[in-house]
Amino acid sequence: MKHKGVAAWLALLLGSLGVHRAYLxxxxxxxxxxHPLPTLIGLAGLNRFQSIGQHDAMAAWTLPLLGxxxxxxxxxxxxxxxxxxxxxxARHNPEQPAAPTRWLPVLAAVAALLLGGTALMAxxxxxxxxxxELSAEAAGG
Length: 141
Prior knowledge:
74% of the residues lie in helices and 0% in strands. It is mainly alpha-helical.
């Protein structure tokens, strides 16, 4: 039986690596394997940003991938947490009787809204800042 709360918290905490998809669909899910590579590239960009500094062009291109992957994990947590019980059971537990949802998925959705919004806004701000800095350098300013 696939629990909605477990799936929502996995999506929030480890969704950038695709662990929530492994929980729901197994290791043969092809969408699962699209998650780790951009996340690891983004983590490498974060490492370069911390060690080399803000003027590293590679970090400027790869670090936003991490923010986008964190935001997509939070979005999955929101979708899972706010899905109706009937729809969840029809999709993930077709043979099981409908179990009522407690507060675990709702709390995951609230936390995902906070953390995912923060990650997305930070990614947009960082990307816009680097874009305008590079535009000013190219213009000779």
